[in-house]
Design brief:
The chain is an alpha/beta fold and about 120 residues long. About 25% of the residues lie in helices and about 35% in strands. It has one domain: Roll (2,3-Dihydroxybiphenyl 1,2-Dioxygenase, domain 1). The chain is built from 3 helices and 8 strands.
């Protein structure tokens, strides 16, 4: 008997938002496109990366919610994101090389969701 090949297409996280409209504007400002939106949920995409922004907020959940975004050039992303984040009153630390083989920087969105935006370090 043949076993069907199981394939996945995509996995999306449901990212909480304390102020849904503010969070949508923030993510659009850093480069995500809103593919579609309802009053309670928005589908955001940048290249091959995507997530669902939800009009939902529980402090304990949001304070422990983390996202990770791999990029091709973390320093260029940092320049762009730090300029945009400043418009939202958010400061962004500079990228650093991490002992686990990644160069990244942390970013907290307007709701407090932690993003780590990074790229792999070149192997020597």
């Amino acid at each position: 008997m043949d076993t069907p090949q199981l394939r996945s297409i995509e996995a999306k996280a449901f990212v909480p938002a304390r102020d849904f409209e503010l969070s949508k504007r923030f993510y659009q400002s850093i480069g995500f496109a809103v593919v579609w939106s309802t009053p309670t949920l928005a589908y955001l995409r940048h290249d091959r990366s995507c997530f669902l922004l939800q009009n939902f907020y529980v402090k304990e959940h949001t304070d422990n919610f983390k996202m990770h975004l791999w990029v091709e050039n973390v320093d260029e992303w940092w320049k762009h994101v730090s300029a945009v984040a400043a418009q939202f009153g958010i400061s962004v630390e500079q990228p650093e090389d991490r002992p686990w083989g990644m160069r990244d920087f942390p970013l907290f969105d307007p709701s407090g969701v932690l993003w780590r935006i990074g790229q792999p370090l070149a192997k020597t």
